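writing this on my phone so excuse typos. first protein, seq and then structure
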Amino acid sequence: MNIKLFEYALLSLTRRRTKHLFIFTILTLLLSISLSIFTISNSIRQEAEYSVNNLPDITVQKQIGGRQQYLDEALIDDIIVIPGVLSATPRVWGYYNFEYLNTNLTIIGLDPFDPDMSKTLTKITNEIDTSYIINEKSIIIGEQLHKIIKEIYNKDEFSFQTPSGDYITLPITSTFESASNMLSTDIVLTNLSSASSILGIETGLATDIAINVSNPQELSTITEKIENMSPSFKVITKDQIIAYYQNMFDYKAGIFLLFFLSSLFTFFMIVFDKLSGLTNEETKEIAILKSVGWETRNVLQVKIYESVIIAFTAFILSICLSIFYVYFLQAPGLQNIFMGYSYLKPHFELTYKFDLNLLITVFFVTIPLYIAAVVIPAWKAAITDPGEVMR
């Protein structure tokens, strides 16, 4: 690196500080917004992946006319004999409309004979023992939901209206704060009997059946055998659910990516137009430099130094701003776009996830283009005859 040319580039930036400051500010804002959006998406995706990783290998549902129906628990006897099936457990769960907040609660019935569910719930609820509510008519809910119920009713119990119109009042015996806050916000844990009564599910029926396999390589074979049992069965694998979440977040991030690329294209068009029409002062400066012995490559070196200083400083600053906005301020405004709005919207801290590929992608999409937008107009001016310019 030529130190003298670098010093001259710094002086050139200070002499035309207004123009360069404007470009620096716009570039920093564009990079900060784009990095913030993709960082939020990655953090929420990481939270969602933690949730779905605790799901069973296969979930069997029954659908008629495109609507989910309840399954007969006797179906388990046919599934458990399939080679490779490790366990098959009926699950009772569903959604209860909490009209006061215009939102849905997720009712989950705990099965005392399902060791996988007990182990998973113990894991995601930070080691809280859920066994004592299995044989009691009570509920365990998330801390946020408990706080709302306490503010509304001023008591530690909740009355559920069943589909038949009757009311079931269950005491709140405990609250939990899940290791994954996306899980803990609207979940209500109770025993199978209470869950069935709240949701109006008859005895002997289940919402779906959770299946775990001993060998993941046999997953497709087992799935095919279950699908062949009845045309009304819908078999969902864990990988399909993970792919759904991946596509959902990629779709939302893709919308912002389209917006970012459009804004970026507009920005570079403005920069190129602004710099391609060099002012008389800038054109004469290049001509004078050529007259006193500068070569074209020296002029281009100065312009490259100028653009690199602006671009790299903007890039580093945008990384710092995006980290501060996302992880210290918790992305006010943008987080709601990904999570949606609800009175029981999950309140969790976005976890830091360093994504080198993201930084490399944003860098090579923006920085080389900006440098080219600066250097090309300067090159055109540098190859022009100095005498013609001065005349």
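second protein below, same order as before
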Amino acid sequence: MDDLAIRTTGLSKVYGRAPGVRAVDQLTMDVPRGVVFGFLGPNGAGKSTTLKMLTGLLKPTEGTATVAGHDILAQSIEVKRRIGVVPENLNLYERLTANEYLELVGRLRGLDAADITSRRQQLL
């Protein structure tokens, strides 16, 4: 297994049609396991866009990345199983109970009713 928590090679994101807005441009970096790492930079520097790509919320325009040794595109489920993220804009459904919210998320992830019930009981 790789000793890297994150590896990116030529990771880029372009918004819009050509020439588009290049939010992230050929980012190549290695982040070792077990270190505290932060992104610093001005607004519009690509910090949030990079994190969205690494967490599977946004598809890169080009380049590759791995998180915990798993490709962010080919193994996105494995990546999501190994990370925890609090997004900058947390979208909660305020009118749903915890049970209802977990059922919604379970259905969105393709779990059957029995698995949803079992997981809800484990989590609550």
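Residues 98-108 form the longest helix (11 residues). thats all i got for now
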